[in-house]
Amino acid sequence: MPELPEVETIISSLRPALIGKTILSVDLRWNRTLVNPSPKKFQKVILGQQIQDIFRRAKFLQIKLSGSYLIIHLRMSGDLLVVLGGYQPAKHDRLILKMTDDMSLVFSDPRKFGRVWLLDDPSVVFQNLGPEPLSDEFTPSWLYAALHSRHRQLKALLLDQSFLAGLGNIYTDEALHLARLHPLTPSDTVTVEQAEILWISVRQVLQEGIQRNGASIDWVYRGGDFQNHFRVYGRQGKACPVCGTKIERIVVGQRGTHFCPTCQALIKTGNG
DNA sequence: CACGAGACCTGTTCGC
DNA sequence: TGCGAACAGGTCTCGT
């Protein structure tokens, strides 16, 4: 479900509620949610630890405890909510941490793809991630060089977390539309100018997503409204906001991919 | 290295 | 109305 802006939005809501709270009990309701350590050790280690801060790295939530890091990835359908008072576990709850001040952190995840780690050193989980797109590390010249160091379809490459960390299916389609680049463009044919426009576009869609508190689709409403501002995602058959051409949907790397065939024409290169 | 298919899961929507 | 297919914001692994 969530991409970078949604994770950022969730963290913003959790931070004021959770910082300073101490974990009093653990209710693990789907064992495979927990990657590391064993359920028994997890409970033993986490009880009594205090939440000190919460950060994001890529699409991971990184909860700094007094003696460990609690790492959470929401994958497709995960959600985190804070509830006050007596709480009756719901059908899709996978992990519930009861805290001081009569508060609980609930990890709900219908599809059971989400994962949780409790680690002394979180870097092992992050070691294969590319740069953060909103950091200073991500520059137009880095992007141009990185695109040319591989030969891949732009859509697939932007989704690859080891290339760039944080984009998912929605924001990739939106960024490519803004940059007027076809999703199947070979990465090493992008010009310096196009790379710069793509760099601006990636940052712009992510910042807009954060500003709008992310996108809320399907049955989960978490307050964001970026879904009302999609240019191409999920809009196949509807008019491109720029030129009016019907948005098309194709499959790239097994992901639904939405683009405007006029604004994002595939430019043929080679043999002139 | 690049790419496609399959796996992991449940729920909703689409098409006949 | 019913029922199977297709689809869903993600990522890993395997075979070619």
Describe it.
With 272 residues, this protein is α+β, with helices and mostly antiparallel strands. The protein has two domains: 4-124, MutM-like, N-terminal (N-terminal domain of MutM-like DNA repair proteins); 140-259, Helicase, Ruva Protein, domain 3. The chain has seven helices and eleven strands. It has helices at residues 4-18, 39-46, 123-126, 140-148, 154-159, 169-178, 192-211; strands spanning 23-28, 34-36, 51-57, 60-65, 69-73, 79-84, 93-99, 103-108, 115-119, 248-252, 255-259. The strands form three sheets. The protein has a five-stranded mixed sheet with strand order 2-9-5-4-3, covered by helices on one side. Strand 3 (51-57) and strand 4 form a beta hairpin. It is elongated and about 60 Å long. The structure holds a DNA duplex (16 and 16 nucleotides).
**How many helices?**
7
Overall mean pLDDT score?
95
CATH architecture verdict of the largest domain: Alpha-Beta Barrel
Q: What is the strand tally?
A: 11
Alpha-carbon Rg, integer: 20 Å
Morphology: elongated
CATH class designation of the largest domain: Alpha Beta
Largest sheet: 5 strands, mixed
Poorly predicted segments: none
* Structural class assignment: alpha+beta
Strand order of the largest sheet: 2-9-5-4-3
The helix content is 25-40%
CATH superfamily of the largest domain: MutM-like, N-terminal
Order of helices and strands: HEEHEEEEEEEHHHHHEE
Q: Tell me the β content.
A: 15-25%
Could you say how many structural domains there are in total? 2
